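Lecture notes, unit on protein representations.

Consider one protein chain, 152 amino acids long.
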Amino acid sequence: MHRLYETQDITVFWNSDKCRHARKCVTGCPEVFDFKRKPWIDLKCDETQRIWKTVKQCPSGALDIIYNHEVAVKLDKENNRSIAVDKDGNIIGECNYQETTEAITIYHTEVNPEYGGNGIARRLVYKIFEEADRECKKIVATCSYAAKMLSN
C-alpha cells in the first residue's frame, strides 16, 4: 500500500511493503505517528522540522519526506489523471491513467522541466496509487517512472 500525507509545506510518503516497524517514527514523533489512529499519520500534530527529522530516521525507507515548493497535487478523476498546480494556478505536471473494473493503468507521467527534481512526479504517481488502493484495484504501470515507483 502506498500513501501520501500532505500539508501546505511538506509531503510524507509511506510504502507499507517496506515498513519493518522499527518504531523510530512512533518514538520520534508520537503525536504525528500513531498506529492506533486512522489515518495513522497526522502531520498537523507537530512542527515540520521535527517531522522531517523523524522521517529521515526511518531505517527501512518506508517513510520519505519532501518539501512541496508551493505546488499542489490533486486527483482529477473526471479526466483520469492527477495534476500538479503551481501557486499561480498553472498545471505544471500530470500523470494519466486508464481505469477498468479491476485495475488502474498508469501510462504517462510528465512534469514541466523547470520544476524537475522537486518530487512532483512522485506525488502525482502516489496520488493515483492511493486512489487504486481506496478502490481495491490492481495497479499496472506501463509508464516507466510509475513502474519504478511501484517496484520501490
